[in-house]
Design a protein that fits this description.
The complex is a heterodimer of chains A (568) and B (426). With 568 residues, chain A is mainly α. Chain A is built from 28 helices and two strands. Chain A is 51% helix and 1% strand. Classes of the chains: A mainly alpha (568), B alpha/beta (426).
Chain lengths: 568, 426
């Protein structure tokens, strides 16, 4: 049960009558509509006509054309300067400023969901090109220069090595912290932010545990050669590549599955592939299907413990499927060996149950736990997935340009990796190559306490994507204490960050002014009124108290402890 | 095994019990630890008489994640089918620790055998859910829901018990899950979740801002949080921080508890030993999905032996640690389902059906309970499920804890006393 299908959070989004009037179709399209949907309390007058007409080509069901890397929609110029429009809005200047606020809220929402945390630069970037164009640019990640992050991760050599090299080198177990540090560093410093979010999604969808002694040395190659390059490509390709990835073959025991000498195949990978990777537990298969798939895949193995994929015909037999029967509509049709297994995997990737399940899982990730499998955001995404030959980028784009996405701001809780990376991003930590080891140690220690060391979830279902799984008492206290440490610069793996950059210049004059500036810088928006007064009351001062720069670090810590830093 | 493929013998799915950790946990007695206990005066003064606690009795629900192999816990003695199906892996009669004329324990289960000898260990083989699904995640969730049929239940059986029996002013620690988030079994209640006790105290914010001021700021901030899980989690967190402040200095596990299963069990052992009013606690112990190379029960370094010994050791340490509270504490050990009778091609076992449950500690009727279908009449090669796991849970709950309507706890299941298996003493 990866995602609880029966969630009690009901989708009660207040207000938003104007959006409803627009109807779903038009909202799915353009930037402006999204902006409208995301703005909540201040009712925004809708630039109705302009938005719909400037909308770029959304991925519709009938367009398998843009399968590759998400055609950048020609909407970049878009942002109509909020003309006139209807209703009771006062002057056009006011309208513009309201829209500007709306843009800021939407940019923040997009940044929280599609990146590891907003920074002033990132928010400016999203506002400059508009959210849809920014999303399209992020989905076309190969065109983004990320050489700075690429250079950073070379600090951890095992990330670039083969399993053979790691196993033969010193401290093969250090692959765990190397890979965790590189992942955290890309989250904090990388520019391909949405790609990084999707890499995390697929790592967990196809979970492998790097702490498994045998699978661990294969994890960098799994990360580098399988998950990263294919994270926005065709799911069918990803599924097949994972099935042949030594990390997975070892982790789910497939590499040892053999049927010679009267042995029975190991069912572990076959079962999890059906249950977790493709159609899902209610996908319509039974125990017989599991056994049939296990037979079909017998002999999918390795050259050796630290080697590469090898099909061993002497360990293989097609099993019961050779004499009839089918698995979810697939029959061998004369195939056997690797081509038969590949054909089954490709069939399952295109199965409507897989489409529905992946669409729902992605929607839960990007929109929220309140999304039901029957919601339009899910059924639309599933349709896009199938119409585009299982391509991931247009599927994700469909979700990120949906009404449901626009209405979901602030509804999800950051998981620990997201919280950790967002904290370091909020502080605008500078990379220091001399302290790469400290960065790895700090990452392992903090994420260890928060129980989300990357790639270290033991079971094949991946880290849970449920808010309630990460809001236990212990988890929250650990987060608050991390905010304290980070705000004060304790143990930060960098030259201590400079609070003056966050407070801006000229220096604030009052405590209230300082808190407001800190909030806009680290949270991307003003502190809400309750949190602001909670801080002031707790420390026994008022907003008008003269600001003392010596308070900078603790004030930053207190702002980082607010609920607004916990949500995405 | 594969001779031309030098693959490891150990490919556990879940966090491995490291060899060193196992040796640490198994090799050190825990007797010295009891001295560190800090007893709460309030509870010493009124251990059982307080109006909010009917009995002070405790139930600890230990879930072995990954489908623990029942036949490696409790094996039928003199059964030729078992020996033939599992050459080299079946518990040999000669090595088994007998707990019944017909059943014996894994030779590494010395502490559990000792509990049995003192009348404090009950075993139920061929246990499980009527639901035949062999998916780990589905079966675990159904087990935690306490339902065989309704995957849409969002609450767990222990959560419903806690909720149905809650009184005003109930202590925050009454329900405790050793986990990052509230486990499904406890959902539906106000139970608290934390993976370790050390993560339950706040640091000062620096610059002269004290921990108390931080706590005060957080207490005022979080009621306004926009996310339900965040809001309720924060309320619980801040309450527990306050309650545990007195033991903050001694909350880290001592050395003997730092390996293997120790860290997962320590928080419960510590709180019960120190007199905190925990009534229901859940503990997850992973690593049981032994699809290959289980090894011989008489080989102390075999994978399955290390797991079994680690479990045995930590349960023994738990009862040592809680001292006198053992007289009011009952432990249920369960898993999601058992494993296939026959080995697969790699010396491991695939997902099966009937499992072994254990009830240990206070109020237990020692011995083997329930029906035993044998290993010939199987469920597609698996031990048949003939003893509903909910019968065990319902019986322990009814006999040991507060009165509750069992139809609320186990909807759709007949949990009347007539269906019980006799794992407790009347």
């Amino acid at each position: 049960m990866d995602a609880d299908p029966t969630d009690q959070h009901s989708g009660t989004e207040a207000g938003s009558a104007p959006e409803r009037r627009l109807g779903r179709r038009s909202l799915l399209t353009g930037v402006g509509a999204l902006a409208v949907a995301a703005v909540r309390p201040p009712r925004v007058t809708l630039p109705t006509t302009t938005t719909t007409t400037t909308a770029g080509p959304t991925t519709t069901t009938s367009a398998p054309a843009s399968t590759t890397t998400s055609a950048p929609a020609p909407t970049t110029t878009t942002r109509p300067p909020a003309p006139t429009t209807t209703s009771t809005t006062p002057a056009s200047t006011t309208t513009t400023s309201t829209l500007a606020r709306g843009d800021a809220a939407l940019a923040l929402h997009v940044a929280r969901r599609c990146s590891y945390g907003p920074t002033p630069d990132l928010l400016a970037e999203i506002r400059a090109v508009g959210p849809t164009a920014w999303i399209d640019g992020q989905l076309a990640w190969t065109a983004i220069d990320d050489s700075a992050a690429d250079a950073i991760v070379t600090a951890w050599p095992r990330v670039g090595q083969t399993a053979d090299q790691i196993a033969a080198g010193p401290q093969p177990g250090a692959v765990r912290s190397d890979l965790a540090a590189a992942t955290a560093a890309r989250a904090v410093f990388g520019r391909r932010q949405l790609h990084e979010v999707l890499v995390d999604f697929w790592w967990n969808h196809f979970n492998v545990d790097v702490t498994n002694n045998a699978a661990g040395p294969h994890c960098p190659a799994h990360d580098r050669d399988v998950v990263r390059p294919l994270a926005t490509g065709r799911f069918a390709d990803l599924l097949v590549a994972v099935a042949k990835s030594p990390a997975m073959l070892i982790y789910l025991d497939q590499a040892l599955s053999r049927v010679d000498h009267g042995r029975l195949p190991i069912e572990n990978y076959a079962r999890e592939m059906l249950e977790l990777h493709t159609v899902g537990v209610d996908g319509g298969y039974d125990e017989t299907d599991v056994k049939e798939v296990a037979w079909l895949l017998s002999g999918w193995s390795l050259t050796n413990r630290t080697g590469t994929f090898l099909f061993r015909p002497e360990w293989h037999a097609i099993g019961p499927l050779g004499t009839g029967g089918d698995v979810l509509g697939w029959r061998p049709a004369g195939l056997d060996g690797v081509p038969a297994g590949e054909s089954l995997l490709v069939h399952l990737a295109h199965h409507p149950r897989t489409a529905a399940r992946l669409a729902h899982k992605l929607a839960v990730r990007f929109v929220g736990e309140h999304v039901r499998p029957t919601d339009a955001v899910v059924t639309d995404a599933a349709r896009v997935y199938l119409a585009n030959d299982t391509a991931i980028a247009p599927t994700v784009r469909s979700i990120l340009t949906s009404t449901a996405f626009g209405e979901s701001a602030g509804r999800r809780v950051r998981r620990p990796l997201e919280y950790y990376a967002a904290t370091l991003r909020a502080l605008r930590l500078q990379w220091d190559p001399a302290r790469a080891g400290d960065f790895a140690a700090f990452t392992m220690s903090q994420l260890g306490q928060l129980d989300q060391i990357p790639h270290a979830w033991p079971t094949p279902d991946g880290y849970p994507d449920r808010d309630g799984a990460w809001t236990g008492a212990g988890s929250l206290v650990t987060r608050w204490n991390l905010a304290t440490r980070a705000g004060n610069g304790f143990g930060l793996p960098a030259p201590t960050f400079d609070p003056a950059r966050i407070l801006g210049s000229p220096a604030p004059t009052t405590l209230g002014d300082a808190l407001d500036r800190i909030a806009v810088s680290v949270l991307g928006e003003p502190l809400d009124r309750t949190a602001r007064s909670a801080i002031l009351t707790a420390i026994g001062l008022t907003a008008t108290t003269r600001w003392n720069p010596a308070w900078s670090r603790s004030a930053i810590a207190l702002v980082l402890q607010s609920p607004q830093h916990q949500v995405r | 095994m594969s001779d031309d493929l030098d693959l490891p013998l150990v490919v556990p799915l879940t966090r491995p019990v490291g060899r060193r950790g196992f040796l640490t946990a198994a090799g050190l007695g825990a007797g010295a630890l009891a001295a560190t206990a800090v007893l709460r005066p309030s509870l010493l003064a009124a251990p059982a008489g307080a109006a909010t606690s009917s009995s002070g009795n405790v139930l600890v629900y230990v879930f072995l994640r990954g489908a623990a192999d029942g036949l490696s816990f409790l094996a039928p003695l003199g059964d030729p089918t078992l020996a033939a199906a599992r050459p080299g892996v079946a518990i040999p009669d000669a090595a088994a620790l007998p707990v019944d004329p017909h059943f014996g324990l894994h030779p590494a289960m010395t502490r559990i055998a000792a509990l049995h000898a003192s009348g404090r260990a009950a075993f139920v083989p061929a246990a499980g859910s009527p639901n035949p699904d062999r998916s780990h995640f589905f079966a675990q969730a159904m087990m935690e829901r306490g339902s065989a049929t309704d995957p849409s239940l969002t609450t767990g059986w222990l959560g419903r018990y806690l909720q149905a029996t809650a009184r005003s002013g109930e202590d925050l620690l009454r329900g405790l899950g050793v986990a990052d988030g509230v486990p499904l079994s406890l959902r539906g209640s106000t139970a608290v979740a934390a993976p370790r006790l050390q993560s339950l105290s706040l640091d000062p914010a620096g610059g002269g801002v004290t921990a108390a001021q931080v706590q005060s700021a957080l207490t005022a901030m979080y009621p306004a949080a926009s996310n339900d899980a965040l809001r309720s989690g924060a309320t619980a967190a801040l309450g527990v921080v306050r309650e545990l402040a007195p033991i903050a200095a001694s909350s880290a596990p001592p050395a003997a508890w730092t390996g293997g299963f120790g860290p997962a069990v320590w928080p419960v052992a510590k709180l019960i030993a120190d007199g905190f009013p925990v009534e229901i606690a859940t503990i997850d112990l992973g690593g049981w999905d032994e699809h290959d190379a289980m090894g011989s029960p008489t080989d102390p370094y075999a994978n399955q032996t290390r797991l079994v010994a680690g479990l045995d050791s930590v349960l023994g340490m738990f009862f040592d640690q809680i001292g006198a509270a053992a007289a009011r504490t009952t432990v249920i050990v369960t898993t999601e389902f058992g494993r296939r009778i026959a080995l697969n091609g790699s010396g491991g076992t695939d997902h099966g059906r009937g499992m072994v449950m254990m009830a240990l500690g206070a109020g237990v009727s020692p011995g083997v309970h329930g029906a035993w279908p044998g290993l010939v009449d199987t469920d597609a090669g698996d031990v048949r499920v003939v003893n509903d796991s909910r019968s065990v849970c319902a019986e322990v709950l009814s006999r040991r804890l507060r009165p509750v309507d069992l139809t609320t706890v186990f909807p759709g299941f007949d949990a009347r006393p007539a269906t019980w298996l006799g794992v407790t003493t009347a």
